Amino acid sequence: MTDRRTSADGTETSTTRTTRTTPATTPGPLHGKIALVAGATRGAGRAMAVELGRAGATVYATGRTTREHTSEVGRDDETIEGTADLVTEAGTESGGRGVAVPTDHLDPEQVRALVDRIDREQGRLDILVNDIWGGDVHVEWGRKMWEHDLDKGLRVLRLGVESHIVTSSCALPLLIRNPGGLVVEVTDGTEEYNRRYREPFYYDLAKSAPLRMARGLAEELKEYGCTAVALTPGWLRSEAMLDTYFKVTEENWREGCKQNPHFAISETPTYIGRTLAALAADPDLARFNGKSLSSGGLAQEYGVTDVDGSAPDAWRYLTEVDQTAPEADVTGYR
């Protein structure tokens, strides 16, 4: 099988990849399913790709940071090739496999080429995860709408909204060929929580839009027997949250509670990955069509836990507990 990739300077290269043919020891519940995780370079996207692979799916992992090119996010040690390797490693026993495809989801031609490749190689698409983001570097926290740099604000909307639209427009014709398809719009915050203002202005719009996208797509996909949902992690201990914002590691993450006691409700990216895999394997997932879901809520639905055995329900906690309190009590919330 030949992989064609375009480098940052526009040069197209090709490499021959041998598809693994060794049968899975125990085929996972998603064995034979084809997934596209758009925005799988790091954080929730990477974890969702890995856990779908662990459950047996073939996962196309996309993003802009590769081993040859770094996106505007600027974290060059987190690449889609690294994600694909982790997916394949996780899927060793279940039949899962990762495929890295460099893609800028604001470029319709690149996304069409990606979907054409999936169609050519697999002939189907069962799971589409729209987790494209990368807008944090442009958000000017604490500024009023008219004070926020306009170009940066519009870039936030392009990354968090337009990229999702482009991807769905190109990928859904392939997904609806078969009933049972799942579309996941990943955002920050449940529909209930996001009734409040998620300042600043551009961030609020970027994180509210996927909720409406999921609801609209749910209506349009029903006749094809497919399902669309919005899904949010809780307080995510992403790579950037650990090493940039709290200056901790996953091993000593509780030290971050000294800076913000409510960090005690946080969760690893693996948690949302596990809950998504459980949702995707649910034969009755259509009951969630159009719904706003969270990692904590789905964990209760499917009996899933985080890597430490806990089951944090961050959005219920953040809704019910006074976040100005100097101490945090997560009893009953994780």
Number of helices: 9
Q: Which class best fits the helix and strand makeup?
A: alpha/beta
- Oligomeric state of shown chains: single chain
Spatial shape: globular
Characterization of the model:
By secondary structure, the protein is of the alpha/beta class. The chain is 36% helix and 13% strand. Residues 15-22 have low confidence and may be disordered.
Write the layout of secondary structure elements.
Elements: E1 2-6, E2 12-16, E3 34-38, H1 43-54, E4 58-63, H2 80-90, E5 97-102, H3 108-122, E6 127-130, H4 150-175, E7 182-186, H5 201-221, E8 227-232, H6 239-245, H7 269-280, E9 292-294, H8 295-302, H9 314-320
Helix pairs in contact: 1-2, 1-7, 3-4, 4-5, 7-8
Based on the model shown, name its key terms.
alpha/beta, single chain, 36% helix, 334 residues, two-stranded antiparallel sheet, globular, 9 helices
Short summary of the structure?
By secondary structure, the protein is of the alpha/beta class. It has helices at 43-54, 80-90, 108-122, 150-175, 201-221, 239-245, 269-280, 295-302, 314-320; strands at residues 2-6, 12-16, 34-38, 58-63, 97-102, 127-130, 182-186, 227-232, 292-294.
